[in-house]
Design goal:
The chain has one helix spanning 3-23; strands at residues 54-64, 70-74, 80-83, 92-99, 106-110, 117-125, 128-137, 152-156. The chain is built from 1 helix and 8 strands; from the N terminus they run αββββββββ. The N and C termini lie far apart (127 Å). 17% of the residues are buried. Strands 4-1-6-7 form a 4-stranded antiparallel sheet, with no helix packed on it. Strands 3-2-5-8 form a 4-stranded antiparallel sheet, with no helix packed on it. Strand 6 (117-125) and strand 7 (128-137) form a beta hairpin. The protein is elongated and about 120 Å long. Residues 29-51, 156-179 are annotated as: Disordered. Residues 1-30 form the signal peptide. Residues 157-179 have a biased composition (Low complexity). Keywords: Signal.
């Protein structure tokens, strides 16, 4: 065989090897199966993980004249924040925060008298509605003396509840007899 012919045969065999290797299916390398996360141990208060933070969404809306509206809400487990949004029909006030204990989520909406409105509030914990309330506040010329919370709607946990680990104030401590 001539050297030219043997060179062509070697090149043809090499080309056939390269083309043939590209037409065969390659062996896939699979990742090992991930290990499942450890199961959380329940805490004393029933929350599976006391370090877990919950996304809280507060929503408030009004259909009517709601001048001087005030929205108060739990900003964290121990503090309350308030804002004075413009609640016009078709508008929704919304604010997001995080809480360790979602049972502490609460809000309160109030409007100035003599104005009246349909008030609506809802609280979402991790994108699920856990509390909502609707109330019609009738317009009044005078503030009712027998109802100090007239014009107010409460939703969720009360805002004025003291923290369970708070020490009693001297005014709330029981009086000592004989002093």
């Amino acid at each position: 065989m001539s050297p030219t012919k043997s060179g062509w045969l070697r090149m043809t065999a090499a080309a056939a090897l390269v083309v043939g290797s590209q037409l065969t299916a390659a062996t896939a390398l699979a990742d090992p199966a991930p290990e499942p996360p450890p199961a959380p141990t329940p805490a004393a208060n029933g929350d599976p993980d006391p370090q877990l933070l919950h996304n809280i969404t507060y929503r408030a809306s009004a259909t009517g004249t709601s001048r001087g509206a005030v929205v108060a809400y739990k900003i964290d487990d121990n503090n309350v924040n308030s804002e004075q949004p413009t609640l016009l029909p078709g508008m929704t006030f919304e604010v997001n925060t995080v809480l360790r204990d979602p049972k502490k989520a609460g809000m309160e909406i109030s409007v100035q008298w003599p104005y009246g409105s349909n008030l609506h509030c809802e609280i979402l914990v991790d994108d699920e509605i856990v509390a909502q309330a609707d109330q019609f506040i009738a317009p009044r010329l005078f503030r009712p003396k027998d109802d100090p919370l007239y014009g107010t709607i409460q939703c969720g946990a009360p805002l004025d509840a003291p923290a369970p680990d708070a020490a009693p104030t001297p005014a709330s401590a029981p009086a000592q007899a004989g002093v």
